[in-house]
Every structure is written in structure tokens, then in C-alpha cells.
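Lab meeting, item 3. Inverse folding demo.
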């Protein structure tokens, strides 16, 4: 199973880049964030790329999409958990696996709203686990989990690096989820997915790791692979691609 996530920072501005990326990588599941468009505003080229897609957004702000490759999946039923606000999460369940694309609030507009969303997201992951579902959650979490996920020059007590936020993300992962990127590269302290768009921060790799693929432990084995692609596209975020098990381990 090849799963990808990318905060595209405007699907209309980067439609050609996204189409080229999908054609080159052919992920089985693609999660997009910050599409900043309502479904009717999505460029026509993205409506015919061979995916069953739920476009969940509105003009100019937030928005997510979940894409399941038609060659692999029958048309799924897409849904939104009850805590979804501001078009921030879309999911689909196929057999025992629930795929979801999420864009967690950055907290700048309302930090309490971010905390509320994170708590609800963790509770939802727990509910899915209790029901025997295997969650795969790709997206922009807007939290750097540890200091190792922030360039040393960028480490400071700000939203996105607070102990409270990190604790809530850890609570999310406590529901049998694996941070696939960190599992694959446990000692890489320059593994970033977002760079401020000034002072050549991206070229100098002075960034934060905000984009994650969380996968249920039953979908992760010794063959797992995950990488971030800093040289792809012109969004301020890089896409992340992981290779997971096709089906959950029977014991999980």
C-alpha cells in the first residue's frame, strides 16, 4: 500500500504540480490539505486522474481531499467525523482500514480550538481502535512532536511546539498508531516537511516536521518505507510518501 500526504497550499495554484505528482507516484491513497477551494472550484484536470475523490473545502481557506486510486478501490463512502469543523478532515473505510486526510488547526487564530480538535481526534482514533478498525491518518498536524522535529535555530516556546500540543499528539499515537516517518529515520534531526517562505529556509533546510503519516501498528512491518520530498513542488510543505502493508497483520 502506497500512501501519500501533501499540504498543497492551494489546489488551484498547484493543480498542474499535483496532477504530475499523482501520475509520477501513483499512490494508492493520497491525502491533500489546504486545498483552499470548494468542490466546484477544483480544476477539471484533477477530476480525471483515476481516483475516487472527496473534495472537502471552500474558497480561500483550509480544506482537505482524500483520493483512492480507482484501479485498486471500488467507490468508497466518504464521511466526516462529528468534530469536523472548517473542512478539516475527510475519511473512508475500506474493509478493516479507515483512511483519513486531516488538517489540524495551526492555533494562531484560536489556540483553544486547536486543543479541542486534537482531543477529539485522539478520542476518535480510540473509538476506531475499539471497533477493530485500523486507522491511517495522513496530513498536516501543525505540531512538531519533539525538539528533533524542529531545526535548532527555530526551537522556541511557541504554538506548534508547546508541551500541551505535543502531549495531545502523543495521546493520538497511543491508540496503536505508528509515526512512520520517525520509525524509518529515528536519528534524523533534519527531517523536515515545512519551511517558512523567506530567507531561503527551504533551500537551507531550516524547517519543522509538521506533516505525518500515522498508521495502525498492524499495517507496519519490517518492509515499511517513508520519505519526505523537499524538492517537489512550490508549496511551503513537502509531500510525504509511505509504503505500508496491504492488509493488517492478523494479530492486530
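The presenter then showed the designed sequence:
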Amino acid at each position: 500500500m502506497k500512501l501519500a500526504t501533501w499540504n498543497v497550499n492551494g489546489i488551484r495554484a498547484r493543480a498542474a504540480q499535483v496532477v504530475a505528482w499523482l501520475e509520477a507516484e501513483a499512490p494508492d491513497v493520497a491525502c491533500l490539505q489546504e486545498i483552499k477551494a470548494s468542490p466546484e472550484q477544483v480544476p477539471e484536470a484533477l477530476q480525471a486522474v483515476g481516483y475516487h475523490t472527496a473534495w472537502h473545502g471552500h474558497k480561500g481557506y483550509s480544506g482537505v481531499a482524500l483520493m483512492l486510486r480507482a484501479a485498486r478501490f471500488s467507490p468508497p463512502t466518504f464521511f466526516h467525523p462529528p468534530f469536523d469543523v472548517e473542512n478539516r478532515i475527510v475519511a473512508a473505510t475500506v474493509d478493516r482500514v479507515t483512511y483519513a486526510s486531516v488538517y489540524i488547526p495551526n492555533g494562531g487564530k484560536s489556540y483553544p480550538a486547536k486543543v479541542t480538535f486534537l482531543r477529539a481526534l485522539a478520542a476518535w482514533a480510540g473509538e476506531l481502535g475499539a471497533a477493530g478498525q485500523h486507522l491511517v491518518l495522513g496530513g498536516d498536524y501543525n505540531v512538531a512532536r519533539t525538539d528533533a522535529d524542529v531545526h535548532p535555530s527555530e526551537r522556541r516556546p511557541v504554538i506548534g511546539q508547546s508541551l500541551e500540543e505535543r502531549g495531545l499528539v502523543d495521546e493520538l499515537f497511543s491508540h496503536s498508531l505508528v509515526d512512520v516517518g520517525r520509525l524509518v529515520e529515528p536519528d534524523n534531526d533534519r527531517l523536515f516537511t515545512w519551511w517558512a517562505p523567506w530567507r531561503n529556509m527551504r533551500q537551507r533546510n531550516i524547517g519543522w516536521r509538521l506533516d505525518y503519516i500515522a498508521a495502525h501498528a498492524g499495517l507496519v512491518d519490517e518492509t515499511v518505507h517513508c520519505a519526505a520530498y523537499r524538492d517537489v513542488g512550490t508549496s511551503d510543505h513537502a509531500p510525504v510518501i509511505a509504503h505500508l502493508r496491504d492488509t493488517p497483520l492478523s494479530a492486530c
